[in-house]
Write a structure and sequence with these properties.
With 89 residues, the protein is an all-alpha fold. It has 3 helices and no strands.
Length: 89
């Protein structure tokens, strides 16, 4: 009897049976964040994990990324405007 071959060839994209699925939390953290000790359990790591799961080919993901940029960028803009108004007095 010939050896049984797998129907599915595991490679880098899919891993093997011991690799957790891509939808598990913490799977999309950059290597630098992991080295610093960030996990999906801390706020900064959870935000990085969420942003790492966004796919630029999906329109809703693009809208989400722009919304995140606005949400995190507006406080900086408002702080700069406040500083400029204080300096102009």
């Amino acid at each position: 009897m010939p050896p049984v071959e797998d129907d599915f060839d595991y490679d880098e994209d899919y891993g093997d049976e011991n690799t957790p699925p891509s939808w598990f939390p913490g799977g999309h953290l950059p290597p630098d964040a992991v080295r610093m000790g960030l996990t999906h359990h801390v706020p900064d790591g959870a935000l990085l994990d969420f942003a790492g799961k966004l796919d630029a080919t999906k329109p809703f993901h693009r809208m989400t990324a722009w919304a995140m940029l606005v949400v995190f960028g507006l406080p900086v803009v408002f702080a700069l405007l406040h500083v400029l108004t204080l300096l102009s007095r």
